[in-house]
Structure formats: structure tokens, C-alpha cells
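From the shared-data thread, chain only:
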Amino acid sequence: MAPHRKHLASLAGLTLLAGLVSAAPAGADEISELAPLHPVPAPGDGELVHQANGLWFIELESPPTTQGTSESKVDAEQDEFRTEAEAFGLEYDERHSFSDLWNGFSVEMDDAQVSTAREIPGVRAIYPVVTYRIPEVDESVPDLDTALPMTGADIAQNELGLRGEGVRVAIMDTGVDYTHPDLGGGGFPNDRVVTGHDFVGDDFNAQDPAAVPVPDADPQDCNGHGTHVAGIVGAEGEVTGVAPDVEFGAYKVFGCSGSTTSDIMIAAMEQALADDMDVLNMSIGSSHSWPQYPTATAADNLVDEGMVVVASIGNEGATGLYSAGAPGLGENVIGVASFDNTHVRTATALARPGGEPVPYMEMDDAPVPATSGTTDPLAEAGRACTALGDEVGDMTGRTALVIRGGCTFAEKYDAAVAAGATGVVIYNNVPGLFAGGGVAAGDAFSVGVSDTSGAHLLELLEGGEPVTLEWTEQTSTVPNPTGGLISSFSSYGLAADLSVKPDIGAPGGLINSTYPMAKGGYATISGTSMSSPHVAGGVALLLQARPDLDAHEVRTVLQNSADPRAWWGNPGLGLLDNVHRQGAGMLDIPGSVLAASTVTPGKLSLGATEGPATETVTITNDGDEEAVYELSHESALGTHGDTFAPSFNDGSADVAFDSDKVTVAAGDSVDVRVTVTPPARDYEQMVYGGYVVVSQVGGETFRVPYAAYNGDYQEITAVTPTEYGLPWLTRITECAAFSGLECADGGSFENRPDGETYTLEWVDGLPDAPYVIAHLDHHVSRLELVVIDERTGRPIHPRNNIAVSVDHVGRNATPTSFHSYVWDGTYVDAHGRVKDVRNGEYRLELRALKALGDAGNPDHWETWTSPVITIDRG
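Structure, as C-alpha cells:
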């Protein structure tokens, strides 16, 4: 076992002042754009982001108690807010108050109240309370065997004797089925699931406006996601997880289906802290957010309290750059990307004629295929995207063979069934099997097969004989062509503040693990939800081996030993995938356990570089003998162009060190300066990255990932028009649910380029008030609506003229989706009184402060001014 790591604070640093030694770029002098061999998933049409649930976080000025503020001061601030809110006439219902990890409230109030709440003294920021959906799943048979070797978990267990004994891992999720024999069995608590709490009740679903949490003491899982996650961390039985001797805390924040809210997550974090958990896994996230979002900052504070926090980075890879989510974006949180499993075990049919095995995966709620008999004859149905003009043909009495892509699985299934199909077989348009989502219950079965199986079935059809699938009870463990590469769904960084995210990766594509006994006991699920518990289990093994590690040191140790992987788009090129997609690379548990050296920091977030950037890395030798280290550089692929559908390039930075070889005495450390010169700016919106490589002569190799934006970050335009011509001024009537630009419940909203008259009266639960809807191509640090009096041409009040102010607003998920903001016709005067504006004519000025922009620099603001609106209360 490796010697325990000494705390860096006790080690003296030595800076070497030798001449610069350059590690030249590996690629050519000219930057080349690289095309992937297979199609890149494209973002679908988005929906209007509208705070119809009326839930908001209100953050107060002082840090929480875990950051040093006294409990009495936090209590006093919260009492003062309640008093001031009453004086301001704020109409709200308090849901939760927080003090340990975050200082503030979650409240229910109408969107039109946000401007009033922001003016209350002591309010630091306001954020929407977002909802988190439970990921879709596909049931299959149990097998974690091929995933564990990808991280070396099998070596850590079998050769190093590590099983996570004595480590307590919190699972914040849908609960855990503690009756599962692989997770303890019996009642709650048992010897594996030792503590926990249900924060919501089985029937809670945040998508239902009438839903009310009904907490209780029993964290039983009626969904399955949490049990699957727990099994990856530490199942022991038919399935063996990464750390099979850990103790679990089960924190149930979802009901049996649907969504939860971010304030419930913070409440669960505070309970995990009270229960003295060592590690927290959160396979939950809100995409396209900022590291400043409350769930991320609360998680950061948990790490400050000594708990290692691991979180999925998100499944929004198809939506492009800066799509990673909180809490995985937290500064101290280990945000985890997903790599595809090397193999997948799945049910198998036989193609007739010929008898060729056809492994398949079931598609959501469609009927399950039989275990015997044959399908109706297959017929080619093409892409089956009828909304895009595809012709399906007559499928009566046939099984439709459909290629993936172009539209959703549900659209393909519905189109084939409408054409008379008795079954739908969807074959992949990229290598490998896939687990489908979104197919609703129907009369026809539906399965997904690989691209090679699809090609074989098409070849059989060309032979002219009837082609069928014969169902069997057979299963197959088949190589996954994308095994070990980044999963197509895994979200991109960077974070909006240009910090390197994700931090590390682990297997997450097609992972089999435990599932509630009532639902079959085992299932296959894909997602960063599955990669995160691999890392959480790895952390448990690391803490068992090296219990002296501080919670802040764990991520660095893991990143140092991680193994970067090749670009998913064309692995044969030998180029490393984007740092802002894979972080440090694949988790290497034995490497981190046995490491006798550490390089800090664990990652270099260089920000926006318009010239050389110099950072310092510290090499610490925790071994018993003097060691020599050689420094070099490995370049990773860059991205450029469209945020939503990025292009790839081989642009490489030039990296130089003040010495390319250092000698470090046992127990000592040495500082080395690293100067990164960005590649040429041959494309717009370039993000580049690579790895500082520290190789111990005769020993291990350690890496530090770095990444940066190439150029002026404020050059990115945030408020941009879409095909609909946004921004718009509008009114919204009877429209609590949106699909594209249509109201699902019969209401309407449309552009009002010539202005509109508003009464500000409430109609059917919505104010007859002016809304501004705008599309954001990029995150903004602040978004405001300023009210201009048309009579004077000036703001309505010299100081308090802001109708809406929301901090750290994320970009929209797709090129056609957008945010909405409403003004209630009030302002706050110099004495802090909320007052109605007079009847008359006004304009609304939308102001967006660019990401990381300087509020005092006019060039960092984007503005749009509405047409004249008329306030007429009658």
C-alpha cells in the first residue's frame, strides 16, 4: 500500500528559475478542422423557459454557518427579510429556509414579484428553483463485470484488498431498495443501508403544480434510478459494485416518477451533513447553469465541511458547449463525464433466414418482445420522420425496420404504427447498440439494434425472401464499438465562468446494475448518472486506502492518475478528446491509490487567453526516496464555431516549462512554472486544451488537464435572434405550458412589434402584463429589464428603475428556445416603498451583462428596447 500523503501546507515550495524549455505542439503548424466519422447528434427544438411553477431561491448577504457566519446572525438576517418583505408588500409562501450550506429561502411567488423581491435590503441574488427529471431506463440483465475493469476497480478489490470498508456514501436520488439482497436485504435500516430519509413521498412530482412533498422516514425506492446508482457504488451479490463494503445513506428526493426541485436537494444535502456521510453521490443535474447556482454552492460548502461530493455533469451533449449542469459545476465538486461500456449484455433474437444473432434492447413502454415465436415479416421504412416529409409506406401486418436519426424514437414508432406496423425495429446510425427513450405504450413492440445488425437485415431484405426475427431466451455479451470513448450524451464544458468541467470520466453508457425487486431486480441504464457512482465508489476505495486525504485533495489525486481517451469522432487519428468533454480522462482507481506523487492544482482553468498565460504547478514527492520528474505536453482536440453544434480542430497550444526535468527529495515539493501560448485564432469561439504531463523516471505518469477560451470571451453575442425573430414583446394568456411557440392549453402569445395596452389585471392565473421573451446563445452574468418613461425618455426612477434582475442566467438549450420575463407595472421608490407606475406609455429595455463581463464597461452589455407599451388600469 502506498504511503499516506503528507499535507501540502507543511511542505516548502522551491521555484526553479531556469530558462524556458518548450514542449512543441504535436500537430502541424496550420490548424485543421476535423470531421467526425459519424453524425453528431443535433439539438432538437426547444421550449420556452417560463417560471410557471413560481418557485424561486432568494439568497441573503452573509455566507452560511458552515462558512463561518454565526447561527444568530443568519437567523437575524432571515427574520429581517421576513419583516422587510411584509413592508414591501411581497406576496410569497416560504417553502424552505437554509442556513448550514446556503443562506436564504426557497419561496413560491409569482414571476411578477421578482423585481420587488430583488429590491428588499439584504437580498444578494435571486435564482429560479429548477426541476430535475428522473432519467429514462431500459431493463435488462445484471452484469457490471465489463465496467469495473475500465476503472481498475477489479484490481483495487482483488489485488489491493480494497472494498470501501468504513466509508459512508450518501445516495441522493429516488431512494434505495434496501430489501434487495445485493444491498443488504430485509428492512430499513439494515447493515448496508444504515440511514436515510424520504423528503417527498411516493406521489410527489414537481411537474404537478398541486404536488406537495409528504416526507417520511422510509427511503424505499419506487422508481429504480437510485437503486441502480447504489448498486454501481457498492452492491454485493449477483452484482458487485465498485466498493461493496461501504455503508449507504439513502436520501430520497424524487417520488415514483417525474421531477423534484432544487430546494429539496439542498435540504437533503444538509441532512447528509448531519448524518456524517463521507461521500455524497448526486446523479442529478440542471443543464446549462452556472457554478454559482445554489445547489452547486451548497455542494461546495459540503466539501469545505469534509465530505467528498461527486455529481453527474449531465446528459446534454447533443446541445453543444457550456451544457454542463449544477451541482456538478461546483468549484469543489467532482463533475463526472460518461464513457461507453466496453461490452453490453443484452437479449438476442435470430435473423431468419440464416440464424445470425441480433442483440437488441427494448424501447421504454412499448410491449416487451416474446421469448419465442417470430415477428411478422420485416419491411424497410426508412427514417420514418413524417413531420420532415418522409414516406413510410404501407406497413400493415409487417415489422417496420427504421434507421435512427432525424426525429425522436417516439415519432418513428408512432409513424410506423400509424402505417399498420405490428412491431418497430430501429437500427443505429452510429456504431453500437443503444437504449431508446420516449416511446410510449402501444400495441406494437419496439427494439433497438446496432448498425451492423441493421445492415445485415437490409442485406437479407435485398435477397427477396421474407425476413423475420425469431425471439429467443438467449443473451449475448457483445463488444461495444464505442466502448471506452466519450458517450454521445455526455455534456460539454467549459463552465460559464471558464473553469474546467467536467473533471473526470467513468463508465456510464449501457451499465447494468441493481434495480428494485418489484421491477425485476436488475436493469441497464445509460447516463452520466451511471458514471458518477463509479467515481463515488472509487472515492470510497481511495479513502479506505488513504484516510488522511482531505476532501479537497481527493479530486486532484483522481485527476492526476486519470487516463485521457481518444476522440470519439475518429479514434484512429490518435488525437485526445476535448478536455472540456472528458476532463482528466477515465478514472484509474489503482493509479490514484498507489500514487506516491501529487501534482497540484489538479487542473488549470486558464480563462480567456489573448496571449501567453503562466501558471505554477507543484510536484510533491510522498515517496521514501528522491525522485526525478520529466515534464512534457499532450495536446487535446479543440472546438470552435456554433455553440449548439460545435466543430472540431487540431489546434494545439505551445506549452513551455521553466525546467523540463526536476529532482524532488522525499517528502518535499517543487514548483514549476508552466506557460501556455494559445494556438492561432483561425476560427471563431475556439476552446482549446491539453495536458501537462509529469512523468516520474522509472515510475508513474501524472497529468494536469488545462483548457481555455481562445480570445476575448466577451466577443460572444448572447442575445441573438432566432428564426422567430426574437426578442419579442408579448402578452401571455391562459398559457402555463408551451411547446415551441404554441400554448399546449389553447392560450396564445405572439410578437407585438407595434406595442400593446396592458391592464395589469389577473386573468386565469396570469397577469395581463408585458412579457419580454428572448433567446440566449450564451450564458449571461446578469439579465435586467429597465423601465423607460416614454414621456421623458429616461428611466422611471433615477436609482430604482430595474423591473427584473436575475443573476447568472444560463443559455438556452437549443437555437430556437427562449426565456421569458414579465413586468408587473411597479417600481421601488427612494424610501423602499413599492409603488405603481402611473398610467401612460413606457418602453422596456432588456439588458444582458455578458458572461464574466465588467458591469462598468458599456461594451460588456447587450441591450434591446421594446416598442412602446401602454399601461391602462382603467
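The mean pLDDT is 89.
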